[in-house]
Amino acid sequence: MDFLTFVQLLDSTVRLATPLLLACLAGLFSERAGIFDIGLEGKMLAAAFFSAAIAAVTGSVWLGLLAGITASMAFSLLHGVASITFRGNQLISGVAINFLAAGLTVLIAQDWFSQGGRTPSLMGGGRFEPITLPFADALDGVPVLGPIYRELISGHSILVYVAFAMVPLTWWILFRTRFGLRLRAVGENPAAVDTAGVSVVGLRYAAVIICGVLCGIAGAYLSTALQAGFVKDMSAGRGFIALAALIFAKWRPWYALYATLLFGLFGALETRPDVIEGLFGLKVQGALLGALPYVMTVIILAGFVGKAIPPRAGGKPYVKER
Amino acid sequence: MDVMPKWAEVTLVPLISLVLAALLSALVILAIGEDPVEAVNLMVTGALGSTYGWGYTLYYATNFLFTGLAVSVAFHAGLFNIGGEGQAMLGGLGVALACLFIPWPHWTLALLGASVAAAVFGAAWAAIPAFLQAKRGSHIVITTIMFNFIGAAVLNYVLVNLMRPPGSMDPATARFPEITHLPTLHDILLPLGINFSKSAPANVTFIIALLACVLVWFLLWRTWLGYEIRSYGKSEPGAKYAGISPVAITMIAMLISGALAGLMAINNVMGEAERLVLNAVEGAGFIGIAVALMGRSHPFGVLLAAILFGFLYQGGAELALWTSIPRELIVVIQALVILFTGALDNMVRMPLERLFLMLRRGNA
């Protein structure tokens, strides 16, 4: 494998890791506040559809992004109403949201566009175009660093940079602000937060809404940047891989970056069987490689390689003492 | 402490949830510019208007009975088994191996053997998440989700690389031998003078599913083990105090659950397709969740819910055929049923409880 192939592989790793990273951070906010969310997949899918649909109709990708975030937030609020206000089962609510999104997106797509559950292909202003960073061409001649700068760092859509900027931002919010401290506390011991006179319900809704915004960006990225338009079930299990990455990262922002990059690399290798064959001299089945994130998560969950301990109050509705 | 009488708990709550889900579904149909009344008419004639329709409705219902019972048994132990999909997939592998590699003398023996294989494979796929939950405390919901994906990958690998007949491009096994074909409801009902549709896939497995219903009821409410499963599900500390082993109950409940999900394969793989294809389960494992929630995890409720979903499934297919409403409408209805009977349960329950409290005060 030559150097350029290697850089290209890393480049597609970054592109495939971006939606995972955004969804993983989304789940991080929600689960740190004690709301389990297995509906990441559905929210991403809904956002992917509404972004592509609005971008196709208006021709503006920014309006599309806004629509995607709105749709994802609507599903988040539904999850919030079910699991915070009505103290329902968060896992069941997540399952319902996944199916609701899977069904509604195709139903609405068929009604609006009549193209078998997809949106028209996006062109021009309907997509997030790659951004060429300054000096990308000028530095091309520099050995090693030139191609890395041009291929790997430059030439992504704005959402990729947003996703990577979200990692330090998430860390800062969660570990350096009062809001973050309270948010984490509400996931560990909501009664203590309540005693301090801070609203548990308010904090949890805030976390769920942030989760919706991030899932919305992730979904918009899928249909307006990674691909040009929505197709049925296009999230293709990414929400669950993000969930796996979240566990893998032990609910920490920087680890989330590493985990999603690793899973992104698996995704990139899956599309390049020739690279694997060149590297290891054996044919690896793409399907088996695709299952690797899940297998690794099960191993981590089993606690054989470092134990992943979820937020203590996760999944439990908070009942104020009367 | 019960505010509501028992009859209200088992009938009113699910019925109101169902009505809410139906109303919202009607709104969805209206929103996409179709007539809900017309749609229901089409669904009823398509799914229940002929023995052909009934044959499909009961065929789907058989699938959902098995997966619904699987989720129910786990629910009773306080476990949420989302892995029915993967367990049914692996059950299909068991059926395919049993049908292809063992020379059966008669279909009854083949059915018996394939059932055992399906149950064992399904249970095996539930065993690892169960063990990890029981021994290592890993959350069973997450591990069973992961095992659905791993199961799909394993099946893909096996079908493409190992079990595909030479020269075939299709990732599927060879056809099962003639002797393993199961009698359809047409074959069973003909001697009784009932002319049931010949082309519908409902088969003898439906009767086995009904038997499974009775057995699960007997197990849960008439045996020691069932008592232990239910008390563990109600209160883990209480069960522990009574000397019930959490590890044993978690394992046993999940093994039974996985075996039931796996058993679905004798219906769809052996009874209908007569070979193993890649996407044989078609989401039935997930519908089991909706069925169990709606049926309040009681075998009789599960039976009613499974038939309702069988009707929705067949009716939805008819709708997709005759109108511009895509099949995904059923996925939406399924989601709404899960939402209202599962997650928003309290939304229906709280006002009802208040109502019954008021009535009681009025009487006193």
UniProtKB/TrEMBL annotation, chain A:
Location(s), subcellular: Cell membrane
GO CC terms in record: plasma membrane
Taxonomy of the source species: Bacteria, Pseudomonadati, Pseudomonadota, Alphaproteobacteria, Rhodobacterales
Domain of life: Bacteria
Transmembrane region(s): 47-71, 91-113, 158-175, 205-228, 240-266, 286-306
Record key words, sorted: Cell membrane, Membrane, Transmembrane, Transmembrane helix
InterPro entries (UniProt xref): ABC_transp_permease
Record membrane topology: Multi-pass membrane protein
Organism annotation: Roseobacter cerasinus
Protein name: ABC transporter permease
Record-level Gene Ontology MF annotations: transmembrane transporter activity
